[in-house]
Design goal:
alpha/beta, four-stranded parallel β-sheet, 4 strands, globular
């Protein structure tokens, strides 16, 4: 008998997307800079990733989300440049189902109302993870008013109730 269970279709870019900094090819300077910052405990409240299509901006943002929120197999770890891939946060982020990692496609949601909705969630503390991460894909497609609203939040992020530092925000530009 053959197994006829259907498998979900995955786009090749997602199927072969690097899962760790070590898997990233051709981005040695970026990887070195980010891993050194994480090792030194110098996490910025926002990262702006730019470059031509296909260089790994969204991939880097997802790896950063895992690195910041990895708790390790024992559940006691802190931010690490080498996410374990086994803890509940790493697994949920890898499967695109983590409630504290919000990805917005700014190419289809270009208005100021969309950004206001996103900004409204920034003031609330993360539910499961250490940090709430916002990945804004194609941020250059935002309207002028929406971009100005986002810029104000990036410049002066609100402090979350249970944290002394603002949540990291990652924007992916063209």
């Amino acid at each position: 008998m053959t197994d006829t269970t259907p498998t979900a279709y995955r786009v090749l870019a997602r199927k072969y997307r690097p899962a760790t900094f070590a898997d990233m090819i051709g981005q040695e300077a970026l990887v070195r800079t980010l891993t050194n910052a994480i090792a030194a405990g110098r996490l910025a409240q926002g990262y702006m990733l730019t470059g031509v299509r296909g260089v790994g901006k969204t991939t880097t943002a997802r790896i950063l989300a895992r690195a910041f929120n990895c708790i390790g197999p024992d559940g006691k770890g802190g931010p690490t440049a080498i996410p374990c891939g086994q803890c509940r946060n790493c697994l949920a982020i890898a499967e695109d189902r983590h409630m504290d990692v919000i990805e917005m496609d700014a190419a289809s949601r270009t208005g100021v109302g969309d950004i206001r909705e996103l900004i409204e969630g920034v003031r609330y503390a993360p539910v499961e993870a250490r940090y709430k991460i916002y990945i804004i894909d194609e941020v250059h497609m935002l309207s002028t008013q929406a971009f100005n609203a986002l810029l104000k939040t990036l410049e002066e992020p609100p402090l979350t109730p249970n944290s002394s530092s603002p949540p990291p925000i990652s924007a992916r530009c063209r």
